[in-house]
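Progress report, Aim 2. The chain analyzed during this reporting quarter is listed below.
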Amino acid sequence: GAAHRTVRSSSPKAMNLTMPTASVLSRSGRLLGGLALAGAMITASVVAATVATPSRALALPGAAESTVVTVDPTRVLDTRFNVGLAGAFQADAARKLTVTGTIETFDETKPEAQQRQNKIVVPTGATGVLLNVTGVGPTGSGYIGVRPGSATGASATSNLNVVPGQTVPNAVTVSVPTTGTNAGQIDIYYGSAAGNTIDIIVDVVGYTTNTGLVDLVNRVTALETSGVAGPPGDQGDTGPRGFSSWDVIPSGQALMGEFRFDVSQSTVTTSSDQVYVSLGAVAPVALTAGNVNFATTGTNDADTTCTGTANAPTAPAGKVCIYLAFSGGIDTSTLTGNTATLAAHGFTATWFPSSGTGVDEYVYATWAYTAP
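Predicted structure tokens for the chain:
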């Protein structure tokens, strides 16, 4: 249930006004007091938490806190008409009244056939109720005590004191058990001399609940951790220019790629076939025939300084190393690396076919280049 504080008076019986530490929010969402946040109300009676809003602190509900929801006043007990409980209260005999879930209600202003209705005034799981309690026609002086439904024995405190000939009302806020045998109930006790009786009326005007607080806490926590967006900052410095194919490759920069031949030879020929490979930028030192070589043993210009593999090509600084991955229908000894006309931008791979008519020749290779 909700947390409470007790106020005592100098009446014949101490008056127990149990007031939950909670904020107030009407069922329509109208703010009744306190600080509005995320569709609910909170007050300083909850655990304080600093939120990332400049010069502003918000209150974060604690585990035992509840919010208050007001409802249209609804009569849930009138012993004069056997509503809620049947018959007047006997002195020194506490009775339990269910106030949550679907219960019987009473409205004297409606036609008789419509006065009694079963409906939900306070939802199941509510942690407390706000009541107007009225003592009517007591046959002897005494007091009425309203406690949580789990209370036992005689009430040691009073919510209102009564005397014969007077009708006495008072506002009462009391917590409601949410679990156990008496979940959803309140305990009502008439303290008076044996044999005395009293009719009691109870109208519900609101209830307390912690439903939705988990969502509220999550949203406040998200606000704390994510912060609040500030004003736009100053324009940053202009970033570096993007890389161009006409830019010089930085010293030590390694590039890798692949290429393939796929040529059908219909006649024997001594002419060469070539494939051009672009570096994508400018080599700091122009490539020459001597530094564009196949790495694979058995090719025309096998270079032993090329120590990578077709799957992991590497090259010494200033060189292009070509790694034969696979070939077919071709004499690998005819393969050679070479340069292009624009020797700073790329290279060619060349071979001299020696195959007969109808031979399909193909080569797949990878390459690497490291800028000196």
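The longest strand covers residues 66-78. Confidence is low (pLDDT under 50) at residues 1-58, 266-271. These observations will guide the mutagenesis work planned for the next reporting period.
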